[in-house]
Design a protein that fits this description.
The complex is a heterodimer.
Chain A: E1 3-5, E2 10-14, E3 19-21, E4 24-26, E5 32-39, E6 46-52, E7 60-61, E8 64-69, E9 74-79, E10 88-96, E11 105-107, E12 111-116
Parallel strand pairs in A: 2-12
Antiparallel strand pairs in A: 1-4, 3-9, 5-6, 5-10, 7-8, 8-9, 10-11, 10-12
Chain B: E1 4-7, E2 10-13, E3 19-25, E4 31-37, E5 43-49, E6 56-57, E7 64-66, E8 76-78, E9 87-94, E10 104-105, E11 109-113
Parallel strand pairs in B: 2-11
Antiparallel strand pairs in B: 1-3, 3-8, 4-5, 4-9, 5-6, 7-8, 9-10, 9-11
The chains are: A mainly beta, B mainly beta.
Chain lengths: 117, 114
């Protein structure tokens, strides 16, 4: 069974600074997807960024980028130029390749990020 | 705008009572899911449905029931058999495309048992 670990329950960062959230996972699969989801205080969870394991290039979405280390099973999220709106709970998630259904998602416990003015 | 609507946002229940949480989506997604969120535990899957009139148990289905009579709707009933029902419940949906994997979430329902 797959597991996802987020070792930082809470983090804080000053506005405009850069912060990195850690995520490690355990799997015997070779093809899979990794995700970072954001859950702001309004509670609607949204997708931040997605990485396909067979792609070596790290995914980027504007101020959000990942450092994907497949051999180390590590998938960290870097937020550059942090904004107050980035304050949220961030979940790392794993999904096996070939399954298009959410029943195969495994979520980490989350990291609560606070962006300070 | 397309999205997922959950209701009610907050619900209080006395012990021994059943309660039903509503989830409606207008995204034309085939698959729908119910997750339970507890502090420090991430999201855990309760039930999921890939098509109308079909649903499957997730990891923590005991004490819960669902139905999928319409594509747009996937209500969750928390029964009196659920030993620790106080939690935040999230409904989600997705397409069948295996190259995306993205889940779309509602805003959630917080259930408190008094």
């Amino acid at each position: 069974a797959q597991t996802v670990t987020q070792s930082q329950p809470e983090m804080s960062v000053q506005e405009a600074e850069t912060v990195t959230l850690s995520c490690t996972y355990d799997t015997s699969e070779n093809n899979y997807y990794l995700f970072w989801y954001k859950q702001p205080p309004s509670r609607q969870m949204i997708l931040v960024i997605r990485q396909e394991a067979y792609k070596q290039q790290n995914a980027t979405e504007n101020r959000f980028s990942v450092n994907f280390q497949k051999a180390a099973k590590s998938f960290s999220l870097k937020i550059s130029d942090s904004q107050l709106g980035d304050t949220a709970m961030y979940f790392c998630a794993f999904m096996k390749h070939g399954f298009g259904y959410g029943q195969n998602f495994v979520f980490g416990p989350g990291t609560r990020l606070s962006v300070l003015p | 705008d397309g999205g997922i609507t959950q209701s009610p946002k907050y619900l209080f229940r006395k012990e021994g009572q059943n309660v039903t949480l509503s989830c409606e989506q207008n995204l034309n997604h085939d698959a729908m899911y119910w997750y339970r969120q507890d502090p420090g535990q991430g999201l855990r899957l309760i039930y999921y449905s890939q098509i109308v009139n079909d649903f499957q148990k997730g990891d923590i289905a005991e004490g819960y029931s669902v139905s999928r009579e319409k594509k747009e709707s996937f209500p969750l009933t928390v029964t009196s058999a659920q030993k620790n029902p106080t939690a935040f419940y999230l409904c989600a949906s997705s397409t069948r495309q295996s190259n995306t994997g993205e889940l779309f979430f509602g805003e959630g329902s917080r259930l408190t048992v008094l």
